[in-house]
Amino acid sequence: MAEAKLNRLNLAEKDYDGAPSTMCRGCGHDAISASVQRAYFESSIEPRKVVKLSGIGCSSKTPAYFLSQSFGFNAVHGRMSAVATGVNLANHNLLPIGVSGDGDTSAIGLGNFCHMMRRNVNITYIIENNGVYGLTKGQFSATADVGSVMKGGKVNDIPAIDLAELAITLGATYVARSFSGDRKQLTPMVQGALAHRGSAILDVISPCVTFNNHEGSTKSLKYVKGHLDPIHDMDFIPPYENIEADYDEGTDHEVTMHDGSHIILHKLGKDYDPTNKAQAIQAIHGAIAEGRFLTGLIYYNPDRKEFAEELNLCDIPLSELGQDMLQPPREALERINAEMMK
Amino acid sequence: MDTPLINDLNICVATENGSGSASSNNILFKAIFKMGIPCSSKNMFPSNIQGLPTWYQIRANGDGYLSRKDVIDVMVMFNDATAAKDIYRVRDGGLILYDDSTPLAANLKRDGAQYIGFPANKLIAKLVPASPLRVKQRNMVYVGALAYLFGIDMAVIKSVLEDTFGKKPAVIESNMICIDAGYQYCKEQNFKQNIARLEPIPDGNKGKIITEGNTAAALGAIYGGASVICWYPITPSSSLAEAMEYYLPRLRKQVDGKKTYAIVQAEDEIASAGMIAGAGWAGARAMTSTSGPGVSLMNETIGLAYYAEIPCVFFIIQRGGPSTGLPTRTQQADISLMYGASHGDTRHIILIPHDMNSCFDFARQSFNYADRFQTPVFIAMDLDLGMNLWSSEPLKLNEEPYDLGKRLSAEQLEEWTKAGKKFRRYFDQDGDGIPYRTVPGNQHRLASYFTRGSGHDGDAKYSEDEHDYKYILDRLRKKHDTARKFVPKPIIERERGVKTGIICYGSSNEPVREARDRLKARGLRTNHMLIRALPLTSEVRDFLAEHDTIYFVEQNRDGQMAAIMKDEWPEFGTKIVSVLIYNGLPATPLEVVNQIFAAAQSAKTA
Fold first, then answer.
1. With bands split at pLDDT 50, 70 and 90, how would you rate the model's confidence at B365?
2. Residue A248 pLDDT more than 80?
3. Do B397 and A83 touch (CB under 8 A)?
4. Are residues B368 and B515 in the same domain?
5. Any idea what DSSP says for residue A138?
6. B523 and B437 in a common domain
7. DSSP secondary structure of B297-341
8. Element (H, E) at B371
9. pLDDT digits (tens, 9 = 90+) for B146-198
10. Residues B351 and B285 in one domain
11. Cβ A59 vs Cβ B448: under 8 Å
12. Is residue B467 part of a domain?
């Protein structure tokens, strides 16, 4: 038997395994978990520094299915964004990944999601987007497209929320879209998100094979595959590797990450600069109008500080500060008492 | 005419909010305090920015009774909108002060009260140039009038102005001119009253401070090590978080010029609760402050923190409910909401301070309880305690070490592993219902676990198994029972042979103290128990057992704490007579006395 490939931490990909999945057979979410696991392995990230967060729903169960050596927190419906914010405040040295669904993020959790991005909280936030509530057995979510048909024939006539567009507007600093079945694109995209400090939002179309995979659905496997519109091919180059081998000056766009790693975007047609906010939003609008799923790194802003940095938190995690650092001296209280005597 | 009482006076100032009266009332109150006379203030303000009625009561009492007094001796009638009612709020023989720049309307005259008018508007028109400030300075005139009539030393008033506006000599001077005008006018007119005289008590308030419970609690939280503070503005709790914003930069050390705390104004209370659950899970001392509507919104997350066993602290400053209710008035009506917050079987630890020092100390200790019991902890305060000014002994710091509870470091976990002992997150290893925990960042290979609000077993694995589920629920109950032995015990005052008891908690303590003296003067001796925490401790049970009749004073309609007590010890249920005050105003001793006598009377005739 060939020896398993080891990464720079001397860990094999199986060291990033989680518990066996309980998703339906063929579920897109499992493919995403596999890409996530591969991304951690390829980027040689210490699993014990990672924290996995989620809300409620099928997608929110999946953090249990990768990186069992990491702490995990499956919270309440729609509140992962808030919980993640608190985790970041308590210990900004942790590497948080959040997995959510379209119901969890775009409906019940929309408010908290918006404010997390507004603060640019450091997190890799993956939305496993299938346009449907699976765990409650097939109701439309807020990302279901107009005209999409439910299993029983019901037609959705309310416009979808485009989470990538929303993320760009509200201040997220790494916004990408992919498809669960496109492991080649998704893995480097997740690696890029993990290397980014700030809110990295990945809207991953992940067909629900049980409740939303029929004729008439715009999130079925067949429909999605037929309407994918990649902006570019992606390669992720970790900081310790040379980028020249993969980079072609004529046709490629290079993105340098905070930790010194690079994403190489191989042009597929038109020029696309992911740091141009207006162009990014325009591109999304164009794709929506034509019924295409725009995929790739849609927007990237390396300049904005993440929340913990914006708050000027000390390097030691707040969770590790002892009484000597936290309790002010007695004399300070005596001074306050004296002021209160006036 | 009667001889004036010495140092026994209750003044009510009726104004509009936003008219600057907060400043004049504050000066008046602090001047009386500085004279050494025990005094208290109760601000009854509207949920509004400008133009609605507000009343501010200042009570000076040489005997040291500081609750809101039921009888008003002097009404400063400075709000036309409420004047017709305000004249009847004064007791018979009381005094009404008014602005006689224009003649008193016929409907504002009543018998049995003395009227003294002074032309505040006309006086300031002469003294203050026309500006928006002029309206505000009008209120300073009544400070001067009251100073002359009741004997408040003008030099003391001057010194309070200096304390208040120290760096702005022009403000001190312009205010002093208006105060002096009121004083001089009353002196020239030779006005007299025979209600009361305020006389300085040398060293009377020596060493005492004036503060609000929200400030005391904010300081306690800072001394208790709060490092993640997430909140959403809501009256009457906002000033607690704002006091932390004010004091944290002054008090907390920095590391390399960086902060050792995070204070975040969240987008709503659901988010504040989520954030502190996340921060508590990750090992920080995390807290929020809110009031009833906020607790309603936080309920789901509170249940998560209870079931997933996450330390976090909730400061609840109660106001009048249900719904928006009376946002700027006081109540103790969220006791049941807090005790059983969230769906399913839950029971929470609640600390209930009753004065400034317990606000400070319980706030500090709350983080120890949260860490020790790995659970949400509530501090149940109310608007009266939180937002009114109270005179108090200085805040006392208990310097005992922080209790981080059963939190295993990587080193400890390694020792366990070597000793063949297994870390099991949700398993009762010590028989006290409290499990061990690790926090993210712990790099030991056996430290991590998966936290969830769904069913789990002793090893934190997902489980829908009936035995696993019941095991966790039973252990949580056991943990709650363990907490019973550690929460603050009630303060009991008892005399042998007395068979009537009074129970109260929180801000009811001060009116009950005075009520008991009045009852005693009328022949009814009572013992007293001040409850300071939930779950109820064994001392509470003993007190119930020892007495034949127990009057339970609460500031809510349904006797919420009495219900918890009856549920706990139904055998004593028939002894408990609820005394309930729930009009939104701070409870008064008269209400307590009247309800107790009425209940005693009906018990006799029954």
1. very high
2. no
3. no
4. no
5. S
6. no
7. HHHHHHHHHHHHT--EEEEEEE-B-STT-BTTS-----HHHHHT-
8. helix B356-373
9. 999 999 999 999 999 999 998 899 999 999 999 999 999 999 999 999 999 99
10. yes
11. no
12. yes
**Positive or negative, the Cα torsion across A188, A194, A195, A197?**
positive
**Do B460 and B374 contact (CB within 8 A), yes or no?**
no
d(CA B306, CA A111): 24
Q: Which residues on A lie below 8 Å from B281 (Cβ)?
A: 73, 83, 86-87, 90
Terminal C-alpha separation, chain B: 44
CA distance B157 to chain A (A): 12
Q: Which structural domain range is residue B585 located in? A: 491-605
List chain A domain ranges: 13-310
**Can you give the length of chain B in residues?**
606
B260/A326 touch (CB, cutoff 8 Å), yes or no: yes
Are A177 and A129 in contact, with CB atoms under 8 Å apart? no
How far is it, in rounded angstroms, from Cα B190 to Cα B199? Answer: 20
Q: Is B404 domain-assigned?
A: no
Boundary residue ending a domain (B484, B510, B534): B484
Distance CA B378, CA A29 (A): 39
The residue-averaged pLDDT of A272-285 equals 95
Of B281, B395, B401, the CB nearest to A333: B395
B255 contacts in A (CB within 8 Å)? 314-316, 325
Q: Which of B278, B442, B454 sits opposite A83 (nearest CB)?
A: B278
> Taking CB atoms and an 8 Å limit, are A318 and B228 in contact across chains?
yes
Question: Contact, B312 vs B376, CB < 8 A?
Answer: yes
CA distance B32 to B42: 14
B529 within 8 A of B540, measured Cβ to Cβ: yes
**Rounded-to-integer distance, Cα A339 and Cα B13, Å:** 26
Same domain, B243 and B349: yes
Q: What CA–CA distances, in Å, run from B242 to B229, B234, B239, B254, B356?
A: 11, 11, 5, 20, 17
CA–centroid distance for B334 within its chain? 13
User: The dihedral of CA A25, A18, B463, B279: what is its sign?
Assistant: negative
Please give the tally of structural domains in chain B.
Answer: 4
Q: How far is B312 from chain A (nearest CA, A)?
A: 11
Q: Which CATH number covers residue B243?
A: 3.40.50.970
- For residues B155 and B282, membership in a common domain is answered with no
> Which H or E run contains B120?
helix B120-127
Nearest chain B alpha carbon to A57: B454
Mean pLDDT score of chain A, rounded to an integer? 94
CA distances to A315, B149, B301, B547 from B192, rounded to whole Å, are 67, 7, 61, 50
Tell me how long chain A is.
Answer: 342
| B405 within a domain of the structure (yes/no) | no
Return the CATH number of the domain spanning residue range A13-310: 3.40.50.970
Average pLDDT over residues B47-72: 94
Chain B residues in contact with A111 by the CB 8 A cut-off are: 267-268, 270-271
- Dump the DSSP string for A164-201: HHHHHHHT-SEEEEEETT-HHHHHHHHHHHHH-SSEEE
> What per-residue confidence (pLDDT) applies to B135?
80
The backbone region for B450, taken as left when phi is positive above 0, alpha when psi lies in -120 to 50, beta otherwise, is: beta
Nearest to B223 among A86, A319, A327 (CB): A327
| Chain B: residue whose CA lies nearest to A313 | B259
Q: Is the pLDDT of residue B583 over 90?
A: yes
Sign, CA dihedral A143-A146-A149-A153, equals positive
Query: Can you tell me the mean pLDDT for B13-36?
Result: 93
pLDDT of residue B284: 98
Q: Residues near B88 by Cβ (< 8 Å), separated by ≥ 6?
A: B110
Assess whether B14 and B161 both reside in one domain: yes
Mutation target to probe the A interface, by most A beta carbons within 10 A, among B281, B398, B446, B457 is: B281
A53 CB neighbours in chain B (<8 A) are 278
pLDDT number for residue B47: 87
